[in-house]
């Protein structure tokens, strides 16, 4: 059942199976763990033959919009890899621009494409903010279904793209190595940029609250384009909105009398701004592979969890090399307030045995 805004009313949330493995949540909130928890960004994805079998029959966004299919591919890596300590719901950050009325297509070999990207700031007013989250309830349905199907084996992570990252896709029309159009907007239309970032922030807050209501036990915000920002730009067009998201989710969950959900911020290429990220209020800060674990801990301190950060390309090494590198990485981070992961998403051609070697090594490190 849903309330009048399209959200699940909190008193109608079904009882979920008891959580059997809470390492991820314990690490995120600073509690003692028996082993370092491990999961991998994009762990439900193209490197798995069982995922490819689903995609052979269904369009990418059809999988995202069909709770039964999204649930199935979310569970696939858990069936294959016994050492995973978390699942992350199968979806995409670009479902938000879709909910705002923009067309997004997934082109084979290219990735996401916007046939009609934002050409000028005047088009911001055409975005359909009203009702946007109600058009994303299929994500909530997939989360609720998965929480039941996962039977408490591990926690379920929900996620979103960050405002600057989403804005970049909406302006560039897809992925971009230069972000030249977006950077032009930053220079030419600063007021309009903040108008768009504010709109996206409002939608993201409600979207994440809906995910928490639906059963997500941890929420991650992907600022995947932070590598295109200088430290000064990060402080201006990324950090304030990331902070607003954390504060807004916290406030709305409190208003709805719902349990607070730990949150992770992952700013790829944002290592230059770790000191700023510390102030944003997130329980966990994700690191890409360019950041040294020891230096990161010095900057972040002992009261925030770190997540990361093996280079995804290292998974093409031999299992023996992967185990050695992983154990070295984990021991540098330490057992307290640490979640093992890659420094970005796992790549499509990654050998299956590499994931086995990585996840096993994490649990063997201490």
Automatic annotation (TrEMBL):
Swiss-Prot/TrEMBL keywords: Cytoplasm, Decarboxylase, Heme biosynthesis, Lyase, Porphyrin biosynthesis
Subcellular location: Cytoplasm, Cytosol
Classification via Pfam families: URO-D (PF01208)
Taxon lineage: Eukaryota, Metazoa, Ecdysozoa, Arthropoda, Hexapoda
GO-annotated cellular components: cytosol
GO BP term (any one): heme biosynthetic process
SUBUNIT field: Homodimer.
Catalytic function, reaction form: uroporphyrinogen III + 4 H(+) = coproporphyrinogen III + 4 CO2
Keyword Cytoplasm annotated: yes
Protein known as: Uroporphyrinogen decarboxylase
Enzyme class: lyase
Xref: CDD domains: URO-D
Organism of derivation: Papilio xuthus
Protein family (similarity comment): Belongs to the uroporphyrinogen decarboxylase family.
Pathway: Porphyrin-containing compound metabolism; protoporphyrin-IX biosynthesis; coproporphyrinogen-III from 5-aminolevulinate: step 4/4
Ranges of residues in domain Uroporphyrinogen decarboxylase (URO-D): 37-46, 157-173
Signal peptide as annotated in the record: none
Main function: Catalyzes the decarboxylation of four acetate groups of uroporphyrinogen-III to yield coproporphyrinogen-III.
UniProt GO MF annotations: uroporphyrinogen decarboxylase activity
Keyword Lyase among record annotations: yes
InterPro entries in UniProt: UROD/MetE-like_sf, Uroporphyrinogen_deCO2ase_HemE, Uroporphyrinogen_deCOase
EC code: 4.1.1.37
């Amino acid at each position: 059942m849903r309330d009048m805004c399209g959200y699940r009313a909190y008193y109608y949330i079904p009882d979920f199976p008891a959580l059997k493995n809470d390492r991820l949540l314990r690490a995120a909130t600073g509690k003692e763990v028996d082993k370092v928890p491990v999961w991998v960004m994009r762990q439900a994805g193209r490197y798995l033959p069982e995922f490819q079998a689903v995609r052979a029959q269904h369009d990418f966004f059809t999988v995202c919009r069909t709770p039964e299919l999204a649930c199935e591919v979310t569970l696939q890596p858990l069936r294959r890899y016994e050492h995973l300590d978390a699942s992350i719901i199968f979806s995409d950050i670009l479902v938000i621009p879709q909910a705002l009325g923009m067309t997004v297509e997934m082109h084979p070999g290219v990735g996401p494409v916007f046939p009609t990207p934002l050409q000028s700031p005047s088009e911001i007013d055409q975005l359909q903010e009203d009702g946007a989250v109600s058009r994303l309830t299929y994500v909530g349905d997939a989360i609720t279904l998965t929480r039941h199907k996962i039977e408490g084996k591990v926690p379920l992570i929900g996620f979103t793209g960050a405002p600057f990252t989403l804005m970049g896709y909406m302006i560039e029309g897809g992925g971009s190595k230069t972000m030249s159009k977006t950077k032009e907007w930053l220079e030419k239309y600063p007021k309009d940029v903040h108008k768009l970032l504010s709109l996206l922030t409002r939608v993201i807050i409600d979207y994440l609250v809906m995910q928490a209501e639906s059963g997500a036990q941890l929420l991650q915000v992907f600022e995947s384009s932070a590598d295109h920002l200088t430290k000064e730009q990060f402080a201006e067009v990324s950090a304030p909105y990331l902070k607003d998201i954390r504060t807004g989710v916290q406030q709305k969950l409190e208003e709805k009398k719902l349990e607070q959900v730990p949150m992770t911020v992952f700013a790829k290429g944002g290592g230059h701004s770790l000191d700023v990220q510390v102030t944003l209020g997130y329980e966990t800060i994700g690191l890409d592979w360019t950041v040294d674990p020891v230096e990161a801990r010095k900057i972040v301190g002992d009261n925030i969890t770190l997540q990361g950060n093996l280079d995804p390309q290292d998974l093409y090494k031999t299992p023996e090399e992967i185990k050695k590198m992983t154990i070295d990485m984990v021991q540098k981070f330490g057992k307290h307030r640490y979640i093992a992961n890659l420094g970005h998403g796992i790549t499509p051609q990654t050998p299956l045995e590499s994931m086995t070697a990585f996840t096993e090594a994490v649990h063997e490190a201490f």
